[in-house]
Amino acid sequence: MNRAERKQADPDLGVMAGQVLFSLQKELFGALAEQGHPALRPRHGAVMAYLDEAGSRATDLAQQSGQHKQVIGTLVDELVELGYVRREPDPRDRRAKLVVPTDLGLDQMAKSDAIVADIERRHAEAVGAEAYAAFKRVFKTVAERQRRGLP
Amino acid sequence: MNRAERKQADPDLGVMAGQVLFSLQKELFGALAEQGHPALRPRHGAVMAYLDEAGSRATDLAQQSGQHKQVIGTLVDELVELGYVRREPDPRDRRAKLVVPTDLGLDQMAKSDAIVADIERRHAEAVGAEAYAAFKRVFKTVAERQRRGLP
DNA sequence: ACGATATAGTAAGAGAAATTGACCGTCAAG
DNA sequence: CTTGACGGTCAATTTCTCTTACTATATCGT
Lengths: 151, 151
Description:
7 helices, homodimer, 3-stranded antiparallel β-sheet, mainly alpha, globular, DNA-binding
């Protein structure tokens, strides 16, 4: 069996992560477009996926999404323009600003969470609820360890 | 518990996939750089990750990696320039060309596979070999279903 | 309180990358 | 031998990423 076939039959962790990430993004933003949010693209996910209802700081969004803070800045510019968020001063730190979702942003967040939950429900049905729950537990551990560079 | 905390405590499938993909890529290409392949960047993975020892066609690489064939074309240009692959005519189809790894390419492929295998071995040790094997089985099913857009 | 250092956010431009539409040569079915 | 499909490349446009630098505010140590 040659390498190409091995990679198909037994794909590695990175390959599978990429397949899931990109195909899930495609489905998510396709569904969002149909549900009234056609202007959003996957890159906006770096903000919208982590945004808190009460507002988040750009630095926190940068750290959680793994993007540079300049990227978050331009994404927030776009999202302000599109009406999804607004900037407010952070009362607890005058250097900082809070990125706060508008009603449109809250609607997108709710729909987005529902779409992803539905996708996961589908997979859980296919492989069994218990197996899926175990899968997610291990995945979370692996993701955390990998992110932190643990041995 | 607010949304930001929920997303931390119980991240969704897409978020975890992204965390694993990007942190694994970072570790992989960092290690490759230390092992004599400093010029390669994650984007080259679209070719090198799927390349067969005996050569692969650009269209196959495009389909497997999910990239447009134009992207594969420019990646192959770069990899030819860097000495990792060469283009050969495909004897079985005169339209097609085979992307064939050079000795340098074969070295990179072997090292890359070893590094990823080592990363996976670490995770398997942390969560238990059996649990990790089950995790990968479910992951493969999920990745395949998600990629194909199955219900 | 004071100065040194660190952090939050922004700006601007160079460089890299993705996307689109078109094109040529080859293949395969009828 | 014609027609439609496929493999690969070209070129132009748009989008994205990275780097460096700067202002304002906060924090720490003395």
